[in-house]
Design brief:
The complex is a heterodimer of chains A (392) and B (160). Chain A is mostly helical. Chain A is built from 17 helices and eight strands. The radius of gyration of chain A is 22 Å and the shape is globular. Chain B contains three helices and seven strands, in the order H-E-E-H-E-E-E-E-H-E. Chain B is elongated, with a radius of gyration of 18 Å.
């Protein structure tokens, strides 16, 4: 007589596809997953609590440690929220806006390259991993040149940027972006027509548009289920309304659709970067708001007003009006939002981060229950999770 | 439907349940009584089109009454509008009904709110801690919870 008992096993946190700290408790009927329960919280650093004890400027370095594969996007979301709280959204100089878009899209490429590399490696395709990391290295070098750091870049500031782009970097970015479509062709050449790849991701991790919306899924994971929604177009920030790009939507609802969506999205990012480079004109990179942005070194040393402003901002910070704002930005993983409550003091009364990965991961049981255990690996990869953002 | 039209409909339907409407930096916040939160959310989703719960969290206003606010960030994918709904929760009764039946995404968000802020969600299908271990004591995002953690002296740096 056949035995129909189920077996409960732990997948992760040591499993290579669970990215270090994710633990899944799987109830298996043979190789079929009957129930999946994600356990998270192994990293929790209390970022939101720490933010309540720092000035608005001092919170910024906490944000790029959330999604460490897309640090500039997190910085961007935070500074946009603070700028909205201060009411200086319209005062950000044109050049700073363009550079923000430029680096945000480079970051999207960087993040998607890691997704592609790891997703393919999880499923067994190693060559793509090495190629994608090779291209990512170029973007890391650009990061290093603009911010001085490769991972925890800290380049965006409330009011603009910490410094202008280094001389000649725009040409370097253009040279790199010119080669990127060719690299994308290579990745697609290795994977898209590959029968093993197709069999591993087609009709795997299916989630309908209704379920995805109900579960709060955002970003390419949602657009892979046919929902035409992108914050860059629908609630534009940093001047995204001035760029010509297509919001990539795929109808398949499966891992394949999300794979195609992200690859097409990378091509769109290249288009946006080209346009941003064309728009790059000389000009200031910080708003004319002396009580919020630090004065130049020359003013600090030579003028009493500069010295006072520098001292006040460093020692005390600035005090936004009491109120609350929410700003969401379209990160590579989905919508990352910052909800800031100000009580009129120099520190946020409350900062709540809306993490894309945390909420997308909630859809994992829905996507993999009823399918094979090997498909769980593909589903984790297709959600493109970063545990630092999940746990905060 | 514009946000103003939504607020008008909400007021017409729920009357005194709507305690306050706040405008700040172009964002609209509606404060409603916590007893009606499920009815308000169901109405906003099904009749007004706020089909997406972007985020949910608690805010601690220690020293004020009511002490807590549960905050719901809503989004309408059709019209691309946002609305914030808040429900006051007293310190003496830190409970509110779950909206996980309205938006499934509230499940984890409410677990997080319970874990970090100590607000209990009535009828929640899975009321467990999510970011902290099950045996953790206290709720770290409350204002009276020390930033360095319980039973630890604040870091004194190199001054001592």
């Amino acid at each position: 007589m056949a035995n129909h008992e189920t077996m409960t096993i732990n997948m992760g946190p040591q499993h290579p596809s669970t990215h270090g700290v994710l633990q899944l408790v799987l109830e298996l009927d043979g190789e079929i997953v009957r129930k999946a329960t994600p356990h998270i919280g192994f990293l929790h650093r209390g970022v939101e609590k720490l933010a309540e004890h720092r000035t608005y400027h001092q919170v910024l370095p906490l944000t790029d440690r959330l999604d460490y594969l897309a640090p500039m996007h997190n910085n961007l979301g935070y500074v946009l929220a603070v700028e909205k709280l201060l009411g200086i959204t319209d005062e950000i100089p044109e050049r700073a806006q363009v550079v923000r878009v430029l680096l945000a899209e480079l970051t999207r490429l960087k993040s998607h390259l890691v997704w592609l590399a790891c997703h393919a490696l999880d499923i067994g395709a190693m060559t793509v991993f090495i190629y994608a990391f090779r291209e990512r290295e170029h973007i890391m070098n650009i990061y290093e040149k603009v911010s001085g750091a490769r991972m925890t870049s800290n380049y965006f500031r409330v009011g603009g940027l910490s410094a202008d782009l280094p001389e000649g970097l725009d040409k370097e970015i253009r040279d790199f972006i010119d080669t990127m479509p060719g690299h994308l062709d290579t990745y697609e050449g290795l994977l898209t027509g590959n029968k093993i790849w197709q069999k591993r991701i087609q009709n795997v991790g299916v989630i309908s548009a209704e379920d995805a919306i109900d579960l709060g899924v955002t970003g390419p994971s949602l657009r892979g289920s046919g929902v035409d929604w992108d914050l860059r177009r629908d609630q534009p920030y940093s001047g995204y309304e001035n760029y010509d790009f297509e919001v990539v939507v795929e109808e398949g609802c499966d891992t394949w659709a999300r794979y195609v969506a992200r690859l097409r999205e990378m091509r769109e990012s290249c288009k946006i970067i080209h346009q941003a480079l064309d728009k790059l004109k000389p000009g200031p990179v910080l708003a004319d708001a002396p009580k919020i942005v630090l004065p130049s070194k020359q003013d600090t040393v030579n003028t009493i007003e500069g010295l006072i402003h520098h001292f006040k901002i460093i020692s005390e910070g600035f005090k936004p009006d009491a109120g609350e704002v929410y700003v969401g930005v379209e990160n590579p993983k989905g919508e990352v939002g910052f909800y800031l409550v100000s009580d009129g003091s120099p520190r946020p009364h409350r900062m709540k981060i809306r993490p894309a990965s945390f909420i997308n991961l909630q859809a994992l049981p829905k996507m993999c229950e009823g399918s094979m255990i090997a498909d769980v690996v593909a589903v984790i990869g297709t959600l493109d999770i970063v545990l630092g953002e999940i746990d905060r | 439907m514009s946000v103003q039209a939504t607020v008008d409909k909400l007021k017409a339907k729920f009357g005194e349940t709507v305690l306050e409407v706040i405008e700040f930096r172009g964002e609209t916040t509606v404060v409603v009584k916590k007893e009606e939160i499920v009815a308000v959310c169901t109405f906003l989703k099904e009749d007004v089109g706020f089909n997406f719960l972007t985020d949910l969290c608690g805010v601690d206003y220690m020293g004020q009454a009511p002490r807590f606010m549960v905050v719901y960030q809503l989004y309408n994918i059709g019209t691309h509008t946002r609305l914030r709904v808040k429900a006051p929760v007293e310190e003496s009764d830190t409970t509110i009904d779950t909206v996980s039946g309205v938006w499934a995404t509230a499940n984890w968000l409410e677990r997080e709110c319970w874990d970090l802020m100590g607000i209990t969600f009535n009828n929640h299908p899975d009321p467990r801690r999510i970011l902290l271990p099950a045996d953790w004591e206290g709720h770290p995002l409350r204002k009276d919870y020390p930033v360095q953690g319980p039973d630890r002296e604040p870091y004194q740096g190199r001054l001592q």
